[in-house]
Design the sequence.
């Protein structure tokens, strides 16, 4: 049956409204999905806070139990630790610059600052591994004393988190190169930046409680 011009126009408007409504529903669903993932990340971060709080508590209880082995004052080389701290805090700043570039829709700047953050994080891990190897070479291993067991567990757990963050960030850089700045990649950049700042805060506690108190 052939429709009149008025009926045809009414039908087209109806279909157009249905398509727009469907599109709006998809956007709302996608936004809820991204918000749920962000909420999941915050839950993960809270469990990580509990993990590190437990490790710090263990260290504070055990740090004086050297079993006749080397003490913190004898082992810790503060110039290297200060360099690690400076590098990691600088990487927190560069990750913030990456987020600013993202909000300006500057894809090149975003990728560049993420790459700089990766290089700084890798430098931090290199110095930390070098510190551990020197200790082991001097006979200070994880099984030497309760103090060293708690030290290697706490600092090593933080280093493992940094390493995972680096792998995560490298994967995100490749994803940004492929897909650009999208709602999904924006959420991932925000999450990795929060994660990185969290690791910096944890390191400040490590630097203060483990290293500074150790040499005082």
Sequence:
């Amino acid at each position: 049956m052939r429709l009149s011009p008025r009926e045809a126009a009414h039908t087209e408007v109806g279909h157009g409204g249905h398509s727009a409504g469907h599109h709006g529903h998809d956007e709302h669903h996608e936004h809820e999905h991204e918000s749920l993932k962000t909420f999941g990340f915050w839950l993960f971060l809270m469990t990580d806070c509990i993990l590190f709080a437990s490790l710090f508590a263990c260290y504070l209880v055990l740090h004086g139990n050297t079993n006749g082995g080397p003490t913190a004052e004898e082992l810790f080389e503060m110039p290297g630790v200060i360099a690690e701290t400076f590098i990691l805090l600088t990487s927190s700043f560069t990750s913030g610059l990456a987020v600013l570039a993202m909000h300006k829709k500057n894809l090149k700047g975003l990728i560049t600052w993420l790459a700089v953050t990766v290089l700084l994080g890798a430098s931090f891990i290199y110095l930390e591994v070098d510190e551990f190897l020197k200790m082991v070479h001097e006979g200070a291993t994880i099984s030497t004393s309760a103090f060293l067991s708690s030290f290697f567990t706490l600092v090593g757990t933080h280093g493992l988190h940094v390493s995972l963050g680096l792998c995560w960030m490298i994967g995100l850089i490749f994803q940004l190169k492929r897909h650009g700045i999208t709602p999904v990649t924006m959420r991932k950049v925000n999450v990795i930046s929060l994660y990185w700042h969290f690791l910096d805060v944890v390191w400040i506690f490590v630097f203060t409680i483990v290293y500074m108190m150790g040499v005082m």
In short: The chain has six helices and no strands. The chain has a mean pLDDT of 88. The helical segments are 5-62, 72-75, 78-103, 107-137, 146-179, 183-215. The radius of gyration is 25 Å.
